[in-house]
Specification:
single chain; alpha+beta; Arylamine N-acetyltransferase fold; Peptidase-S9 domain-containing protein; Papain-like_cys_pep_sf
């Protein structure tokens, strides 16, 4: 994906051999190779992807050669341009059992889905910058960032419906396809347990009353997550009288993005001098069979916290909606102990 693409909307589709290797990576049977596209198949592939392939910023901080030498301290942002772009992440994901971030994972997942006959749009979203807060009451209001997140919308020729899927959001990731609808009420579904609920709404980019309104705007889709007091399960239908509030995750337009623009978005997120992803270390995936429980490794340079990454579990039915980490472990931010831990706990291959 280097240089300016001659065919800006060219799409990538995996071969049967590549799709077979991908299924093996997802720990799914090769018999699925002959399955026609359906909501059931999409749901199975999507959930397995989130359980097996982590969102992973480690390429931005560790050049590959550093893993093979003596144990050395890791400096955030030191690799800078090491994150694979788009489907070039295939080998890292499939053969090295590692992960990447959204512009690599979702592009590669899209090429995998196309093998089965899914029609997949690669889109870009605007992330909400006050995650977890109620934008109608919090001082931040509707605080939006730039277009720095790739996501997918998938359908198939025999279906009138299309579904949002996102294999690389990370914590609070919706793990089920959610249908696009123009109904003003939106589409509301529960997640993998009764303490997760999501809503996809067709609307203009929501802004606070005190914010300048754009001169021209077109509607898009906003994905929201429902937050209620710890211990309060979500019960459908969720109405204005239900406990809790909706907090946005991201907003996007249903307009396919050309390859050159994805290269630009990738650069701003991974290799620009103010790239946001170079400021933190994150490796996170759902625990297989954990009904939404997630294991994450997180590190950011904060005074007084030392040079150790925190590994912790969140979510799942046992959390009852709490976002507090449990089963906490600490790993030194050096290549030796991290390599050993990632191979053991996240199944990385070096």
């Amino acid at each position: 994906m280097s240089g300016f693409p001659a065919d800006p909307y060219a799409i990538s589709t995996q071969t049967r051999a590549e799709a077979g290797a991908y299924l093996e990576r997802l720990k799914l049977p090769s018999t699925l190779l002959d399955s026609p596209p359906s909501l059931s198949l999409l749901s199975t592939l999507f959930l397995s992807h989130l359980e097996q392939i982590p969102k992973d910023t480690s390429p931005l901080h560790v050049p590959e050669a550093q893993w093979n030498g003596p144990s050395t301290p890791i400096k955030l942002g030191s690799a800078f341009t090491n994150m694979p772009v788009g489907v070039s992440a295939f080998d890292r994901i499939v053969h090295e059992n590692k992960g990447a971030f959204c512009f690599s994972i979702n592009a590669t997942f899209a090429s995998f889905l196309r093998y089965f006959g899914f029609v997949v749009s690669e889109l870009v979203g605007r992330s909400f910058k006050s995650l977890g807060n109620d934008p109608t009451t919090h001082p931040d209001g509707f605080k939006w960032g730039t277009l720095t997140h790739e996501l997918l919308v998938a359908g198939w020729p025999d279906s009138v419906d299309r579904y949002l899927i996102d294999a690389a959001w990370g914590p609070c990731n919706l793990a089920k396809p959610i249908k696009l609808t123009t109904d003003p009420a939106g589409e509301i579904i529960l997640g993998l347990n009764e303490f997760e609920a999501y809503r996809l709404v067709y609307e203009d980019l929501p802004l606070s009353p005190n914010m300048t309104q754009p001169v021209d705007i077109i509607p898009g889709y906003t994905l929201y997550r429902r937050i209620a007091a710890v211990g309060t399960p979500h019960v459908l239908p969720i109405t204005a009288d239900s406990p809790g509030y909706w907090t946005p995750l991201f907003h996007f337009h249903l307009s396919s993005v050309p390859l050159a623009d994805f290269i630009l978005y990738h650069h701003f997120s991974a290799s620009h001098e103010i790239a946001s992803f170079t400021a933190f270390w994150l490796i996170t995936r759902l625990i297989p069979g954990g009904n939404g429980a997630r294991r994450s490794m997180m590190y950011a340079e904060k005074e007084g916290q030392g040079n150790r990454a925190k590994v912790y579990t969140t979510g799942g039915p046992e959390a009852q909606g709490s976002e507090e980490g449990r089963d906490v472990e600490w790993v030194e931010m050096e290549t030796g102990p991290l390599k050993e831990y990632l191979a053991k706990e996240f199944e990385f291959k070096f």
